[in-house]
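User: I'm writing a tutorial on reading structure tokens. Could you give me a worked example: one chain, its sequence, then its tokens, then a sentence or two explaining what the tokens reveal?
Assistant: Sure. Here is the example chain.
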Amino acid sequence: MEKEEQKTRAEDTTVETATPATTADTGTAAAQEDGASVGLDAEAQKLAEEIDQEFSADLLEEERIVEALLFTMGRSVGLDEIATALNAGKKIAQDAVERLIAKYEERKGGMVIKRLEKRYQMAADPDCYPALIRVAKQPKKPVLTDVVMETLSIIAYKQPVTKAEIERIRGVSSDHAVNRLVEYGLAYEVGRLNAPGRPALFATTEEFLRRFGVSSIQELPVLNPEVEAEIKQEVHDEVVDIMGHAEEAAPEEGTADSGDDTPADAGGGAQ
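And here are its predicted structure tokens:
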């Protein structure tokens, strides 16, 4: 009986001893799994950071190239040229230059990047002009008389426009004023009107945008509605006048041809 009790106690002791060992093994396995999970998360985070750093480096390199291009060219640059420099598409080029503009505006340095229609140009901040003038000679700008300014206004709001249209609006000859604007680089011949004589069409230039501090002609002040209606009516009248002369010329030529044919027919009948 005593032997059986001793055997039972020994078995219980064995079970009790084995239980803590099993629990310890389970805890170790769980800890290892947690450690492995933490390790994977750390590796994933590290990989993501490396990708972000590489992507940021690519974006920074694009901005550096755009900045160097704008500085070197010294004139307005189009998206096609920026895209060529980046060896990328126009969307990437536009994103790069817009990021660079935002950084320049945030930094508030001495240089700015101006938007000129769909082109971009690096220039000194206008706030710095007084300081620059103290060192450099002030560039001599052409004086725009009232007549020239009036002509320039008509071109700016009605472009493309012919000299005839300008003269109809002003009521006097505008040859001198238009020639001066072309000479000053504020206007240029953009094409020809598809009408008798094919008169030249004039429009404003990038220099006009720079001079008057606007990015596009859409930013020009809105015209007085009455003035705008008057200008539109005058332009319409001129187009009708031009087309009317063209239609009048055609019948006259036809009549002349008919007159020439009649004697010939009559002569044939006499024979």
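What the tokens reveal: The longest strand covers residues 111-116. The first helix runs from residue 2 to 73.
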